[in-house]
Amino acid sequence: MAEHDVVVIGASAGGVEALCTLVSMLPSDLPASIFIVLHIPAQSPSLLPEILSRQGPLHSKHPENGEQIRHGQIYVAPPDLHMLVGQGHIRLSRGPKENRHRPAIDVLFRSAALNYGTRVIGIILTGSLDDGTAGMLAIKRRGGMTVVQNPADAMYPSMPQSVLTHIQIDHCKSLTEIGQMLPSLVAEPAPPQAAYPVPQEMEEEVKIAEMDMAEMNSSTHAGVPSAFTCPDCGGTLWEIHDGNLVRFRCRVGHSFSLESMLAGQNEALEQALWVALETLEETASLQRRMMDDAHARGQHWLARRFEERVRKAEKNATLLRDVLLKNAPITDEQAVDEALSTAQRQVPDEERRPVQGRKPPHF
């Protein structure tokens, strides 16, 4: 009987420190493959594999597209690419973002649930918002094991708390307890796959993440049309009820939970306000020039009209600027980027190279 030899881990803000702690507790002979998604900005180079390789005996790396899966290996999703777990291999894709992220935790978890079912252990660590909840639900439906970091133990409790709110979890433990118990969880026999059939919607969503054009161009969509539009592309969103979890997906595949949908709308609103501010300032500058020209021509009555318009534009611009400066939170990606930058500076230059690991047997 197969063991739980596919371990998928999702983390976001505060995740660098949490992953380092967890990896440091794993044994060198762990008979499983570990897959990690950490939210990082697309433009940032990631040294997370090198950082994790220094923490324990297991080798960490960014995989290549189509790379064969091996036991005793940690695979870290590269920046701006979804990582999906196929049958014996890894698939990298620039598919549509989910919950405003690429790589996204839900994409990894859903693909693992589809292809390995009961052999999967899903782990959600510290992070903001709720990426990973839908993916963990997919693992649960396919008979996999679900583990969540205790929100009280997490630097950012939102992600683990969201999972606990929507799913009956197998284990909710502190980070240290998860590290201690993971080898024994891996060794537990997995239930038969036949008892947990693959839902059609799960297979369709994995194909969308893989950029399967036939699926993306399909005239049928899961869920029902909603009154909302996609914050990323402006297309119609379909509302999907996944148990008690409400999600949205647009025609081209962008996917949102309720929380990420709200965050996306807030970001779109902020962008619109910045555009409005720029337009007001340009308008004030142009009308000030027209006022000066009117004065030069001796048309003082016209200059006074332009002067009044300049004052109104400047007043509105000041109001908009105050709103923007008072509502500029640090985003989840920025927090992770800062943590990664700090950790990367601690890696000596001579150690910023692939770590030579042993060659465990193929899947």
Name the structural class: alpha/beta
* Multimeric status of the protein: single chain
The number of E-state strands comes to 13
H/I helix tally: 11
Radius of gyration: 25 Å
Q: What is the CA-CA span between the terminal residues?
A: 14 Å
- CATH class category label of the domain at 6-196 and 344-351: Alpha Beta
Instruction: Tell me the overall shape.
Output: elongated
Query: What proportion of the residues form beta strands (DSSP E)?
Result: 15-25%
Task: Explain how this protein is built.
It is a single chain. This protein is 42% helix and 17% strand. The protein has eleven helices and 13 strands. A seven-stranded parallel sheet has the order 3-4-2-1-7-8-9, with helices on both faces. Strands 10-11-12-13 form a four-stranded antiparallel sheet. The chain is elongated and about 95 Å long. The two termini are 14 Å apart.
Element layout with pairings:
Layout: E1 6-11, H1 15-24, E2 33-38, H2 48-53, E3 59-61, E4 73-76, E5 82-85, E6 90-93, H3 105-116, E7 120-124, H4 133-141, E8 145-149, H5 158-166, E9 171-173, H6 175-187, H7 200-209, H8 213-216, E10 224-229, E11 236-242, E12 245-250, E13 255-257, H9 258-296, H10 300-326, H11 332-345
Parallel strand pairs: 1-2, 1-7, 2-4, 3-4, 7-8, 8-9
Antiparallel strand pairs: 5-6, 10-11, 11-12, 12-13
